[in-house]
Fold LysM domain-containing protein.
Amino acid sequence: MYYIDKPEKSSYDKFRIYKIKKGDTLESVARDLGIDAQELRRYHNMYCEIPDLIEADFKSYLEYLILAPEKSIEAKKEQTEKKYQKVSLASNYTLPFVADKINNDYQVNYTTVFGDDVDTIEMKVSVKWLATDRNNYHLFEINKGSIYVNNTIPDTVMDELAAKTASVLYPLKIVVDESGKWVDIYNYDEIENRWKDTKEEVLDYFEGEVAENYIEYTEYALENSERLFESLSSDYFLRAFFNGIYVSYTSNYSFQNEVFFPLEKDEESKFAVQQKIDSILDESNLVKVEQKGDYVDSGGEASFGFDPWKGKFNASYFLDEHSYCIEKINLECSIEYDEPIKVIVQIESLKNEVTQN
């Protein structure tokens, strides 16, 4: 809408104003005041009279420009500066792993796709740092809450049996190296002793072939520490959270890497990825780390004359700008078999919800 006639002068006494001079433009005034031009126009248009609205630029008759209060301007400047704040790394472009800052609860969601079958699993997981040794290996305690499958708590006898046998693992204490990668189980003996009591409860409450199979499977997994580690290697949370992202990067904040993830049954899927850190904090002032790449086919199919399998791996880690602790993870990997398989892992800190309560 355009106004040709000059309107009557309005009183803007209650506002902080700028008197427009001959030759002034929106861009030139914004530059002189150190304020974003769009922000300058937005604030003026919120409080001015309708005839004084700024469209592409100042109207020829416009005498006064309404400015935001000083505090508002300073806040905007700080926000703008923060928006473009560079991520700080340690020596050798290493992403710091500040293990002793990690004591948090997370909401965890898995979505698994196999052909036309889609399942979702939800749970809460707590991660707590306990200690660090002289070799810079870290001890963590992991606990898991109730598990929901497809938005409901499992209530069949088989589900109860699975939950009962799985509960023997927690609290789980694990060893994590200086890059944030899970490398060992610390409390194997404690878990084995818990199983002795749990096994008696299972035998008292459950019976039949299914119960016997669960007991046999659990005892196989608990035969020794190495076998338990191998069994837990298919745990999506442990693999995604303790993925070893705290390593040295190049001067351009990226490098080529190989990532292994338990997507295939009883096998490690291999992906060739570009791993990089966004050099600038994101809009939520978080450090963003990405792993993005393609599935590396083992070559077995090609030897029989079939086309190599293809797949993708995409993971985004969002870290606190000060502690570098994980605030959120979005991970998705897939392989195009005859029936495509895909896993989506979403992990998000519950810290904000606790603070609000």
Notes: The domain at 16-83 is CATH 3.10.350 (Membrane-bound Lytic Murein Transglycosylase D; Chain A).
